[in-house]
Design goal:
- The protein has 662 residues and is α/β, with parallel strands linked by helices.
- It has three domains: 166 residues, no CATH class; 260 residues, Spore Coat Polysaccharide Biosynthesis Protein SpsA, Chain A; 163 residues, Immunoglobulin-like (Sandwich), CATH 2.60.40.
- It is built from 16 helices and 29 strands.
- The strands form five sheets. Strands 8, 9, 10, 11, 12, 13, 14, 17, 18 and 19 form a ten-stranded mixed β-sheet that branches. Strands 1, 2, 3, 4, 5, 6 and 7 form a seven-stranded mixed β-sheet that branches. A six-stranded mixed β-sheet has the order 21-26-25-28-29-22, with no helix packed on it.
- Helix 9 runs parallel beside helix 10.
Length: 662
């Protein structure tokens, strides 16, 4: 297998590369064996398992011993027992320890590659730390876990099944549960991958209290959008014990009059429904507006709701309230959809909770179709999350007040995340209810964050968030460190860094050395630069700020992304580099290496078009170059690519016409 084939396989199987990386640094450990207890299902009787596996019978259970449960139909890793022993040894209060797992399957099943008849590891399940509401939703603990003997003895005496044993061991106490973020078990097949074991066996919430909910809606100059929100709210919501508080930061007179008329109409239609309209001219500050509404609220619960949301079903508020009433509950969020596109039968997900990645707070599954079971039910059942969006957030007023409400220093972004951080630190669990579904016409109220000023403000507010919570920067107990951290990624993919993810150092060239290529062709002078019409070059993205990498530094970074290939050639043999040419004709030219990046979308386009004739091996045609701007003279630069193919003496060069300002 040549370099191209090896690299293509590597980029199509990131989890296999991640496993290799883990093996480089792992040491094999031995020690006193643990008592292993095999099981088939979370509904298995603990007494039956104990009697079958512990030869001395029930009376032989040692309270301080550790008992390791491993599902039949799979294999423990060599280090599983050592890792479990260490977890209990280092956490004296621990009663329950569990770990991650993966699955065996064919190359075709796991990675969509040609099957060679062998089985490979894939589909890693990187689990969250202790999540009581997720555990009530289904048995997310999975195939490998261990408990202390005292817990096992109690479960035997009480006649519990494994699900009950785990819940009893956890006992709603973070300090009693340890999650090992390592894969310690491999399932022999993919048969149970999409199943949510034990789903529906446990109660996921308490009965809905008959409590007043104060629905607080910030709004300005948006009466039509607000009208849709309120009309769907009052018409469709089954739970009726609520009041509405509209906080307006200075609508113009005609909009103000429209809101007054809307409120009057809704009062009349809904038997004197209490609707308060607070108008106060001030700069937009979401936190201030929500806090004003909270101070005016009469309810035991506060629902913060964007005016650009739309209610689509009856039971949403009831479902959220049943979770918010739990003693351990912090903020409860809803599943939010983007509006349906024309001729579409399904919704796209906008929000099912917020993860706190290395690059900052992010929405996982955003933009994906809400169908099937996405990453172990993240779109189906209640999940504990570090944060939920303030676009639809329910919290008990006493808890909201106890942590100080919204932080008014965060006027536009991350105020909801910051509130959730404080609730989590106070010992509460924030969660998303996937059975509470709304449409969110995102950013209709205040616009998007796409402009330069908006991006700058967003960056500053993110930095302020982490200045307030430095201990949570890049940390999320409900999002595994083994998942993607340093780039936008809406799915739950393994975090493996390829060469193109690293920062590059630009090298300045003299005018007449443009034809000298780096790497294997560093000393090879290309005598003819020809064939610009043979090159396809597209620059998809140019960024010169807010670039995040795993190797964070104080320097200013830039990122150029796109794709490049040579028509009619075997691109597996191509060596290429990125060129930056200063536009003031001063002769400044910089060169940076391009490492191959998988772009199957481009390969599919090329292979299905006329350009496919003699154009081969295009899957690794991607360009992603991150570099230090401090190494380049300030100015405006045109972006190009230079390449050679195999032993050809001619080189290929093309300038994209795209500019980057350094």
């Amino acid at each position: 297998m040549g370099y191209y084939e090896e690299e293509l396989f590597a980029q199509k199987t990131p989890y296999l590369q991640w496993l290799k990386e883990q093996e480089k640094y792992s040491e094999k450990h031995t020690g006193k064996p643990l008592c292993r207890l095999p099981f088939r299902s979370c509904e298995d009787s603990v007494r039956d398992i104990a009697e079958a596996s512990i030869h001395r019978g029930i009376g032989g259970i040692e309270d301080k011993a550790v008992y390791l449960f491993a599902r039949k139909g799979g294999k423990l890793s060599e280090n599983a027992e050592y890792e479990v022993r260490e977890a209990f040894s280092q956490n004296k209060k621990a009663q329950l320890v569990y770990a991650d797992e993966d699955y065996l399957g064919s190359l075709d099943e796991l990675y969509g590659l040609e099957d060679d008849g062998a089985l490979y590891r894939g589909e890693p399940w990187f689990k969250p730390d202790y999540s009581p509401d997720t555990l009530n939703a289904f048995f997310y603990i999975g195939s490998v876990f261990a408990v202390r003997g005292a817990v096992l003895r109690e479960a035997v005496e009480k006649g519990l099944n494994l699900y009950g044993l785990v819940c009893r061991a956890a006992d709603m106490d973070r300090e009693k549960v340890v999650h090992i973020p390592k894969v310690l078990y491999t399932n022999n097949s993919l048969s149970g991958l999409r199943e949510l074991e034990g789903c529906g066996l446990m109660e996921n919430s308490v009965p809905v209290p008959d409590a007043l909910v104060s629905i607080i809606i910030p709004s300005r100059d948006n009466s039509k959008v607000l009208g849709r929100c309120l009309n769907t709210l009052t018409r469709l919501t089954a739970y009726r014990n609520y009041e509405i508080i509209i906080v307006d930061n200075g609508s113009r007179s005609d909009e103000k009059a429209a809101v007054y008329a809307l409120a009057g109409e809704l009062r009349q239609k809904n038997n004197g429904l209490n609707i308060e309209y607070i108008w106060k001219e001030m700069a937009f500050n979401f936190s201030v507006m929500c806090n004003i509404g909270a101070r005016m609220a009469n309810g035991e619960y506060l629902l913060f709701l964007n005016d650009d949301t739309e209610i689509i079903e009856a039971g949403w508020l009831e479902n959220m309230l049943s979770s918010a009433a739990l003693p351990h509950a912090g903020a409860v969020g809803a599943k939010l959809y983007y509006p349906k596109k024309e001729k579409s039968d399904s919704y796209l997900i906008q929000h099912v909770g917020i993860t706190n990645m290395g690059i900052g707070p992010a929405h996982k599954l955003s933009g994906l179709e809400d169908g099937g079971c996405l990453y172990h039910g993240h779109n189906l059942v209640t999940y504990d999350m570090l944060a939920v969006t303030g676009a639809c957030m329910l919290v008990e007023k006493a808890k909201f007040d106890s942590v100080g409400g919204f932080d008014e220093e965060l006027s536009v972004a991350y105020n909801d995340v910051e509130l959730c951080f404080r609730l989590y630190k106070a010992g509460y669990y924030n969660m998303v209810r996937n059975d509470a579904r709304l449409i969110h016409h995102e950013s209709l109220s205040r616009g998007s964050d796409a402009g330069e000023k908006e991006r700058e403000r967003l960056s500053k507010e993110k930095q302020l968030l982490y200045n307030k919570h430095p201990d949570l920067e890049g940390e999320d107990p409900f999002y595994s460190p083994n998942l993607v951290q340093w780039r936008k990624d809406v799915e739950y993919n393994t975090s493996y860094l390829y060469l193109y993810d690293n920062e590059m150092l630009p090298v300045r060239l003299a005018d007449d050395i443009l034809r000298t290529l780096p790497k294997a062709h560093k000393n090879k002078l290309i005598r003819h630069m020809t064939g610009e019409n043979r090159i396809m070059l597209t620059i998809d993205e140019i960024k010169t700020d807010d670039i995040e990498t795993p190797h964070c530094c104080m320097e200013r970074l830039a990122c150029i992304a796109g794709w490049h290939l040579i028509l009619g050639k075997d691109n597996a043999c191509a060596e290429k580099a990125l060129l930056l040419r200063k536009t003031d004709n001063c002769g400044h030219i910089y060169i940076l290496p391009i490492y191959p990046q998988l772009r199957e979308d481009v390969a599919e386009m090329i292979e299905s078009g006329e350009a496919s004739v003699r154009t081969m091996n295009t899957s690794l045609c991607g360009i992603r170059v991150i570099f230090n701007c401090m190494a380049i003279v300030e100015g405006s630069y045109e972006i190009g690519v230079v390449a050679t193919v195999g032993n050809e003496r001619r080189g290929y060069i093309k300038w994209s016409g795209c500019m980057i300002d350094i």
